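Student: I would love a firmer grasp of how sequence relates to backbone shape in proteins. Thank you; the sequence and its tokens follow:
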Amino acid sequence: MQIEICSLCAAGEDEIAVSIEMRAADRSEKRRLVIPSETYIELGLSKGECSRELYDTLEREADIYTAYRRGLAILGYGACSKRMLTSKLISKGIDRSIAGIAVEKIESRGYIAEDASARREAERCAAKLWGESRIRAHLNSKGYGKDAVDDAMFSLEDAGVDFEENCVKLVESKCKCIPSDRLAIQKLVASFSRYGYSLSEVKSAINAVANKKSSIYD
């Protein structure tokens, strides 16, 4: 098979479109591969005959660049962890290894800051009055690593987030009155535990709210 680079031209800001024709016997195929300008310079491309090895490199670099641009587009809709962004790229049909390389490039250029992103996500969860275990589980589901999750939880502590106090606020916001029936209380405890609070936190909060409400009528 004969492979030839037919033209090289700007495709966008810092992008080069490489037009390639491949000929074999009585058939031919034309390809247009878009790569970043830095790759064009690194490879020292020029018009003319192209080896199979160079073509394979060009094709791979074009695939990585496509995944890189798609990754940036995904981040435009909201922050992602590296693992989550990689998963999203794979779900769009991008090869796992290509997705991994693209995400590494995105991170190296400062578009992914896992610790800062995890902290912002944790702050949003705390504002919803979620408990510690639910926030941790949510961050894990988003693909943040253990270090990023721990850092996010420490940042909540440093910011003065009091989960016991938040549990009281949650109970107050959901309950107009605290039931006296034992079964109803058990259901209430189970309900608030799903927000990520421990049994002791929930029971303490329910008692605090019950005492506060009863004192109004004393």
Notes: DSSP finds ten helices and four strands in the chain. The first strand starts at residue 2 and ends at 12.
